[in-house]
Amino acid sequence: MVFSSASGGIGVSAFAAMCARTLMKRDRSCVLVDMDFSAGGVDVLLGQESEGGLRWSGVSAPLGRIEPESLLHELPQWEGLPMLASDPWNDGHPDWWEIEAAVDALAQCRDVVMVDAGHAGDWRKIPIALHVMMVELSVLGLARARGALARLKDRGVDGDGGASLAVADAPLLLVGVRPFGAGHGGVVTERDAKDYLKAPLAGVIRRKSGLGKGLLAGLGITRIPRRYRRLLDDICDRVEERCCDGRRP
Known about the structure:
single chain; alpha/beta; 2 domains; 8-stranded mixed sheet; 8 strands; globular; Cobalamin biosynthesis protein CobQ; P-loop_NTPase
C-alpha cells in the first residue's frame, strides 16, 4: 500500500509508520519502504540513522531479482519494523528494476509492504492494493490535492475509492491534515474540502506539537497520539481487507 501527499512536510512518513505499528499490534508482519528518493530519509525521522543495515543506495538486483529473506535480514529496524530507507545524500536513487525487485521480494515475506512515497511519483511503477493520500486542509493544499487527483484519474483512479490503477485495483482514501499552527481562519472545513475535491475524507488529523518536535529532533515516535487511533484503526481495517484477504493473523 502507498502513502502519499501533494504537499510536502505534512506528516506522511510519520503517519505511515504509525499505521505500520498499529498493524503490528494486530500481529501483521509489515515493512516500511521509503520511496521519496529526492527528499526521503525515514530512518533519520524515526531516530534510526545510526543503525547499521541496508539503504536504497546499497540495493542491487543485476538479474532483476533479490532473495526475500536476505533483503529483509539486512534492513535496519524501528520498534521491530524493518525499513528500507532512502538516502539521497548518498546518491541513492535506484533503477526501476531494482525498485520492482526489492518491493516484490519484501511482498513475498511480509503481510503488508507500506510504501512511504511522500510527494514523489516513483511508486506508480509498482502494483498497489490501497492508496492513502494525505491532504493539507488549506487553500493551497487543496489545490495541490485536486491536481494530484486529476492526474490519478487520468491514470484510471477515482477519488471515491471505487476505481483502480491500470496495474492493480487500488481504492483511494483521503486523509485531511489541519495546517500546523493555523487559526480557525486558515483551515478549510472538512465539508468544504469534500465539496472542492468531490471526494469524501476518511478522517482528519491535527498535528501534535510534541510529536512534531520529537520527529524534528530525530527522536522518533514514542507513542501514537490517542486522537489518531480511531482513524488508524479504520485504515488498518481496510489494509487487512485488501492485503491480507481477511485472513486471521
